[in-house]
Every structure is written in structure tokens, then in C-alpha cells.
Design a protein that fits this description.
single chain, 455 residues, mainly alpha, 0% strand, binds phenylalanine
Amino acid sequence: MPETGERASFNGKLGFIMATSASAVGLGNLWRFPYETSHYGGGIFVLVYIVLAFTFGVCLLLAELSFGRRTGKSCVAAFGEVSRKHRHIGYLAAVIPMLIVPYYCVIGGWVAKWLFESVAGNISGLAADGGAYWFDFISGETGAGFGGPTLWFLVFTVLCMACILAGVKNGIEKLSKVLMPALLVLMVGITAYELSIPGAWDGVVYYLNPDIGALSADTFLGAVSQIFYSLSIAMGIAITYGSYTKKDVNLEQSAGTVTLIDSGVAVLAGLMIVPVAFMFGFGDSNGMGLMFEALPQVFVSMPGGGIIGPVFYLLVLLAALTSAVSLAETCTSVFTDGAGMGRRKSMLATVAIILCLGMACVLGFGPLAVDIPMSQGAGWLGVFDTLANSILMPVIAILMCLFIGYVAKPEFLEEEIEISSRFRLKRVFRVMIMYVCPVLLTLMLVFGLGGVFGG
Ligand code: PHE
């Protein structure tokens, strides 16, 4: 993302698509999508995800991008620009990155730890006891208590803030544009190897063959939440991105391309992780640890795994870092734009939030344990994840649709989209934003939450 403060712009359509995809592709695709798929019964979740991504996801992404470009403002200011009375929607959206970035840094820390261990030649340790290493690590049994997950959380947080402070943010984004394709190539290679392991196909069938019987009300909420998280929408970020976009960029096409790239990476990550987890009998019981438990099993037996493993974790770390940097930047800009604070103070406030909530997540697997339905068995990390993704994001998305449909009016965005190209799906867009999205999202929220809280 260009520096906040001045209104810089992306270089052309490709630059815009690459930058938006680089922010979109992160732990959401590699870590969250596979375990959610496993949790919601495999193929059926993939199917629901794809259908909703290319209807709800793409529509909301287009709405946010065009809203940002039309107003030329970032999230907190954009709503107020159209109607002062509704500016609180922007503030509500701005809370979400603040809930996400702390636990994002915790997971980023896990990736850093896995990189460290694999570089140190300890892949077999990571794979030992059917992947029990992950659970022991997060609960503080490996890595000497406080020096374990806390240390790696701090390492990742420092890396993230250092990238912002050193002003190399643009540098690492450029780097990530080169490394992202490398990550993809590596993922294809790892997946191809896995498929050659006897027994892998049963896992692939579980992953790709939709079992209608596994469908429940919360599958839909799970899928839309995952789409919002992964596409970085319903949290104000795409609005800010839109405000950096030049007027000649075809927004309709770009929204489609970004959705395609992001979903493609997610589905590939699922193919790389879910069948292996299935094969090794992890099922959904291990939840959030799936990526950390399943892949070492592969690297340990793969020819060249001792090198491929560390390279893979390094690329994942960089993908996580670019996303974390853009999340932390967003929080900072909320304090500067929204609360009128100086840049230094804003950054300190962001760090304070990351440290407080992040430590709650780390300790939530040990001394600060909470076990309420919202925690999904993952303590405070689960609480923040559910609160941000399954409650606040759908609420923001509903409010945004109502705002665009009935306050700003769809023409407000349609005119903007038509500046650069003919808007082919204009009517569909209008129906989606005014009726389909708000109604169905409300139903998903109500019935889905029933599932989350009802167990
Ligand atoms: N979409 C990113 C991911 O999938 C997460 C993210 C959200 C990044 C918001 C930036 C902003 O990991």
C-alpha cells in the first residue's frame, strides 16, 4: 500500500491488482482456509466458499473499491464524507484490524518458530508424535514456557514494526511480488509430491467431493467470514485501497481478478494441507494447528524436504509479514485520520494494542485460558477471531450494503465504476447490494451464530 498520509496511487492496473493481491494473500489462505475446510466437513465447505466468493465476495470488494475511489478517502472518513450521520460505520469497521493484527502476529510467530526449527534441521522434531509438537509449543510445554510462544510472538511483532519504521514497507511489498509466485510454484510442487503418496487420493476426495450431509447453517457463516477475512473486505481496508486507485483502472475486472487469485491460492493451500491431514488422521480435532502439524509430516519424508521445508516457511513468513504490515498500517492510519493523533503516537498505540491483545492470545493457551463457545477451543485467539470474523465483519457488510443501497444510492458507485469501463454486471450488482446481500447475510448471521453459540 502506498504511504498513508499523502494520497499516492498505484501504478496502473497490474500494479493495483498485484498490490491488492499481495495484501489479500496471507495467513488467511494458508493457515485459516485449510483448517476451516477441515472443520466444516471438506468438499462442501470448498463448494460453498467458491460460490459465495464469486457472488458476495466479488460484489462487496467491488463496492468497497469503488466507494474508496469515489470519495478518495480511507475508511473512517469515507462514510462521513457521504453522510455525517453514518460515519460511525467507518469507526466500527476500523475496530476489526485492531482485533485481527494482534493474533495475526501470534500466528506469524508460530511460522517464524517453524522456520527456525526447520533451518536448524529439526523437521523430524516438528513432525514427531503425529504433530503433537504444535500443541506442546503453544501450551508452553516446549520452548521453556515464557521463552516459547511469547518470544516468537515478539519476534514477529518486532519484524513487522521494524519494516514499517525502517520505511522498507514498499521494499518488502516489491519483494513479495516476486516471492509470491515462488510460493505458488513451491506449493504446486509440494502438492504434486503429496499426491504421489499412496492413500492421498482418499484425502483429495474428502477435500473436493461435497458431502451435502455435512452442510449446516454455520457452514455459510463460516464461508462468508473466511471470504471477508481472506479478501480483506468488510473491515475498511479495500476502501482505503480503492482511494489509491487511478481513475483508468477497470474496477469491475480488477475485483474479479483479485477474487480469482485469492481464492485460487486458498483452494491450492487447502489441497496441499487438507488431504495430508486427512491421511494422517488429524481430522478437525486439531483445528488451528492443522498447517503446522500436517506439513512437517510431508517434509520429513519428501526428497529434499530438508531444504524445501525451510524455504516454504520462509515464503509463508514473508506473505504473513506483508499482510501484517498492511494491517498494522491500517490501525495506525485509523489513529492519525480518525483521532487526529500524530504518527509516532499512533504507532505506539498500535503496538500497545498488539502487545496487550496478542499476549492475551499467547497466554490463552496456558494461564489465561478461557473456554466459552466463542473461543472455538482456542482461548482468546478464538474469541478475537470469532468476534472479528463471524460477528463484526458480517455486521459491517450488512451495514455497508444498506448504506450504499439506501443512503449513498447504488448510482454513487455505478458512476464511479463506469468512469473506466462499461459496467457489465450493473443490474446484478444493484440487486445484490440492495437486496440479496443484506437479506442473506442477515440470515447467515442469525442462523450461523445459533450454530456457533449452540455448539
Ligand atoms: N487477507 C489477509 C490474509 O488472508 C489478511 C489481511 C486482512 C491482510 C486485512 C491485510 C488486511 O491473510
